[in-house]
């Protein structure tokens, strides 16, 4: 998997209604590359915390060893006593037993540098959080999403949760651009008709003839972004620039500063309903729903412009996938692209059928086959992203335990209260 949402499977559990949105720093300019992420984190945590060698803070490292940033890890491990539980100890029953036994002492931080390992204990809920020692100050994890951890409860216990979405922003935005283009040009139809059984000369010719009648250039169409955080800003910058020329509209729980709106030429919509009514393509790029419930439902789908397109690079749990399939079948939604799914690694069978159908049926206004692009939670999955996850997670721990501000804390509002 890759959220932007990079969360451990299964990612379908909704976040609590009180979970705050990420307060990760938005870039001063829309483009924030992976190298810029590393520079930012290094500047924010310029040195190791100074602690007596005999009283080094303990960091619980859950998951695989660091792979991409040996120099930073050398600094990290010199500053702290790093304990890495075995894979068996990370399974939930044994993990709970170890916490009750205080097997790893009074550790001060939890460090999880990879999204693919370190989540064996499952949901970080009250059962786990209540067992953490009072010495824990920070939980720094890979990935943008945090629907697998009760960040409100962590904050109430005095623990800052830091995500690494900043490091994945460029990769996810690039992937989202490809998906938006797919919905306008019906790429799954074009690809499956040419390559996959039951591909045939008739299927090829039908796609060659009919796909152009249902395809459009993105230029001049309105891109509706649900969420204008780091990822949303990069998507807006990439698709709203002269190369693609899309009109940018967005909805977020907090309106962005005028300077940023001007830089992105983005129009704010105070309600989701207002945004959906004007968007030709809607991109879901928010880490969570304010209520913890799905955002894309029969009710909200009814507000889409007929034939509008939909892209999800956020959380699978935010979409009622059967309702989306219904909207695709009746033509309310013209095409869709989903990188994340509500029951990963399983994918909705109705959407799979729409992604792989190549029977040659279709019309100029409502193409039948290949109307859905489906990928395997890959949006943030690049080497640069993983390197950034490691670096940013270590820098967050070093910052907090060194008495400085967290770089990408997502629950700071809870701590302030």
UniProtKB/TrEMBL annotation:
One of its GO terms (molecular function) is glyoxylate reductase (NADPH) activity. Residues 15-27 have a biased composition (Low complexity). Keywords: Oxidoreductase. Residues 1-27 are annotated as: Disordered. PROSITE patterns: D_2_HYDROXYACID_DH_3. Residues 214-354 form the D-isomer specific 2-hydroxyacid dehydrogenase NAD-binding domain. Pfam families: 2-Hacid_dh, 2-Hacid_dh_C. GO terms for cellular component: cytosol. Residues 123-411 form the D-isomer specific 2-hydroxyacid dehydrogenase catalytic domain. Gene3D superfamilies: NAD(P)-binding Rossmann-like Domain. The keyword Membrane does not apply. The keyword Oxidoreductase applies. It comes from the Eukaryota. Belongs to the D-isomer specific 2-hydroxyacid dehydrogenase family. This is D-mandelate dehydrogenase. It comes from Staphylotrichum tortipilum.
């Amino acid at each position: 998997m890759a959220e932007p949402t990079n969360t451990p499977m299964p990612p379908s559990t909704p976040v609590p209604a009180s979970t705050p949105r990420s307060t990760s720093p938005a870039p001063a300019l829309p483009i924030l590359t992976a190298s810029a992420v590393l520079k930012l984190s290094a500047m924010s945590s310029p040195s190791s915390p100074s602690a007596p060698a005999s009283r080094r803070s303990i960091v619980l490292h859950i998951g695989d060893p660091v792979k991409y940033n040996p120099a930073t890890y050398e600094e990290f491990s010199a500053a702290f006593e790093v304990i890495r539980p075995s894979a068996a100890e990370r399974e939930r029953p044994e993990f709970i037993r170890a916490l009750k036994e205080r097997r790893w002492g009074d550790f001060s931080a939890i460090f999880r540098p990879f999204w693919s390992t370190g989540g064996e204990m499952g949901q970080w809920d009250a059962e786990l959080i209540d067992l953490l020692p009072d010495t824990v100050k920070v939980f720094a994890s890979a990935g943008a999403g945090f629907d697998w951890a009760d960040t409100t409860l962590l904050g109430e216990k005095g623990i800052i949760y830091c995500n690494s979405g900043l490091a994945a922003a460029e990769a996810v935005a690039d992937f989202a651009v490809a998906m938006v283009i797919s919905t306008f040009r019906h790429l799954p139809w074009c690809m499956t008709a040419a390559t996959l059984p039951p591909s045939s000369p008739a299927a090829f010719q039908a796609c060659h003839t009919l796909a152009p009648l249902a395809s459009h250039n993105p230029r001049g169409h309105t891109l509706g972004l649900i969420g204008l955080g780091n990822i949303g800003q990069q998507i807006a910058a990439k698709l709203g620039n002269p190369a693609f020329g899309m009109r940018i509209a967005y909805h977020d729980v907090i309106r962005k500063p005028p300077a940023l709106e001007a830089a992105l030429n983005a129009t704010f919509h105070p309600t989701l309903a207002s945004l959906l009514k004007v968007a030709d393509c809607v991109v879901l790029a928010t880490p969570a729903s304010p209520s913890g419930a799905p955002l894309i439902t029969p009710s909200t789908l009814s507000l889409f412009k007929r034939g509008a397109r939909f892209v999800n690079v956020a959380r699978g749990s935010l979409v009622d996938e059967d309702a989306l399939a219904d909207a695709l079948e009746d033509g309310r939604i013209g095409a869709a692209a989903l990188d994340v799914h509500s029951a990963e690694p399983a994918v909705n069978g109705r959407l799979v059928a729409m992604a792989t159908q190549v029977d040659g049926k279709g019309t100029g206004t409502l193409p039948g086959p290949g109307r859905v692009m489906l990928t395997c939670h890959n949006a943030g999955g690049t080497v640069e992203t993983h390197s950034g996850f490691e670096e940013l997670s270590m820098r967050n721990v070093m910052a907090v335990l060194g008495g400085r501000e967290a770089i990408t804390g997502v629950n700071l509002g809870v701590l302030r209260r």
